[in-house]
Amino acid sequence: MNIEHVAIYVNNLEVVKNFFVKYFGAKPSEKYTNFRQDFSSYFLVFDNGSRFEIMHRSTMIDPKKAKYRSGYHHVALNVGGKKDVDELTAKIEDDGFFIVAAPRTTGDGYYASIVTDPEGNEIELLAGNVN
Fold first, then answer.
1. What is the dihedral of CA 92, 96, 64, 29, to 10 degrees?
2. How many domains does the chain have?
3. What's the pTM value of the predicted model, to 2 decimals?
4. Of 8, 69, 82, 84, which is least packed with CB atoms within 10 Å of its CB?
5. For residue 9, what is the domain's CATH number?
6. What is the pLDDT of residues 42-74, one digit of tens each?
7. CA angle centred on 34, ends 29 and 38, rounded to 5°
């Protein structure tokens, strides 16, 4: 068994798509739109074939986000080694995005940082080799 894809709703589909393309090399599918259902989405495909779906409806309300809540919290992406985590974190920060946690070795042995996308969704950047 494996996870086929993970999906989240976003407020600005194009901005979030461009973020994942620019920083993570995601290849976007053609935009899917279902006008009857007021729904549009992209599948973002990564080099290893894993997929992340971003979805939007025009009737969405942007609720205030709480740090701890039920539901989606973050997605973790393996970006290579420790140097890759450091460099990508710095690039994302230089471009004005919020860094939740600077690169460090976590208590469970991962080398990771946590950044946010343009809508404040958390993305954990992981080095491929633990310890």
1. -50
2. 2
3. 0.81
4. 69
5. 3.10.180.10
6. 999 999 999 999 998 888 765 555 555 556 778
7. 120
Residue 37 near residue 85, CB atoms below 8 Å: no
- Cα(77)–Cα(128) distance, integer angstroms: 9
d(CA 40, CA 47): 23
Is 81 in the same domain as 51? no
CB half-sphere exposure, 32, CA atoms < 13 A: 12
* Residue of 106, 125, 103 whose CA lies nearest to 20: 125
* Residue 66: inside a domain: no
Structural domain including 95 reads: 74-127
Pair of tokens at residue 23? 């920083």
